[in-house]
Amino acid sequence: MSKEKHINDRVRMVDVARASGFSISTVSIVLNEAALSRYVAATTKEHIRAVASKLGYRPDASARSLRSRRSHTIGIMVSDISDPFCTLILQGIEKTLYPTKYLPIIMLAHNQRAQFGRHLEMLMERRVEGLILVANWLFGEFDQLADLEKNRIPTVAVGRDLTAYRVRSVQVDNEAGGYAAVQHLYELGHREIAVLRGPSELADSDRRWQGIQRFAAEAGIQILPERIQQLEAVVEPTSGFAEGCQHTAAMIDSGVSFTALLAFDDLTGLGAIRALRQAGRRVPEDCSVIGFDDIPHAIVNTPGLTTIRQPMEQMGSLAAQYVLDSLDNAKPAAETQESPTLSGTLHLFPPELVVRESTARYHL
């Protein structure tokens, strides 16, 4: 009975001390990588670590956190894990944090303001050292971020520009993306171009529209009002698909003429393709369609969706690296009472046109 209990008990530091033949203080200095460990012989440190590994010793992270006053955790607030836009960014964050000593704590807000606020409080209560916000276009309430600035927690937003909240942000250049999308359709010979804009409350939508208008002015073409539809700010992950289908069908039913359609994002574009098919119009033979984001659904759709790619994994990776750099460059706690922060600057990634089968040259 006692043998079974010993097997199931957690291996303690005192067990490593007994097995290695060194005092518990020496073992503690070595295994905790304390400053005094530089005075311990290399052979001694190697022996202690080998014994600890053989016994299966694992340091008590909670106790270490109390001693060092550091949690070595980074909070990751994801607006909607079911949104492929968010999951790709999350992959980039995880790959960057994996080889480090920092543990990610992932919280899901489900596009709900109250849940976002409660999870933010919980992360701060657990003394996260940094925070990464993965925000899709459906999620727009960030008033609670003032507490992060007060607590001087380095914070980075991915997918949304939160520089107005003094939060460093990582995004794609939305204006350049809108410009590239309409330019691609124009170079294929399309002049009657329909546009499904994002919600009016969203700055990303305005920037893409600015890019579209800038190219249209340079090329001398007009995008008529009847060919412009706007999505509602609905907090459902599939709302873009449903609205893309609905708005495209409405234009077709109203007799609006268009040979190409530029969608706010990929889900909206896929919804537009559904409506076109239901109306008996072929893609791309009768109408070309281009999306934005390059989510996994874009390449597996039939036809494959031409889109403007956001380098989402790279964006997540850079956001994580910003937080890590801020923490690694911070002065030791003994030298300052302040925590590291990140300034509210914006990093823009260039968009990339990905041509697939949903766009083709226009023939009279």
- Give a count of the beta strands, DSSP E runs of length 2 or more: 12
Report the β-strand fraction as a percent range. Answer: 15-25%
DSSP summary: helix tally: 14
Low-confidence stretches: 1-8, 331-340
Mass-distribution shape: elongated
Classification by helices and strands: alpha/beta
Give the helix level as a range of percent. 40-55%
**Largest sheet, described in full?**
6 strands, parallel
Report on this model:
Strands 2-1-3-4-5-11 form a six-stranded parallel β-sheet, sandwiched between helices. It has a six-stranded mixed β-sheet with strand order 7-6-8-9-10-12, sandwiched between helices. It is elongated and about 90 Å long. The chain is of the alpha/beta class. The chain is built from 14 helices and twelve strands. α9 runs parallel beside α10.
Concise structural overview:
The chain is of the alpha/beta class and 364 residues long. It has helices at 2-8, 13-20, 24-31, 42-55, 61-68, 84-97, 113-125, 146-150, 174-187, 203-219, 239-253, 266-278, 296-300, 312-328, and strands spanning 73-78, 103-108, 130-134, 155-158, 168-172, 193-197, 228-230, 260-263, 288-293, 306-309, 346-349, 352-354.
Task: Supply database-style keywords.
364 residues; alpha/beta; six-stranded parallel β-sheet; six-stranded mixed β-sheet; 14 helices; 12 strands; 43% helix; elongated; disordered N terminus
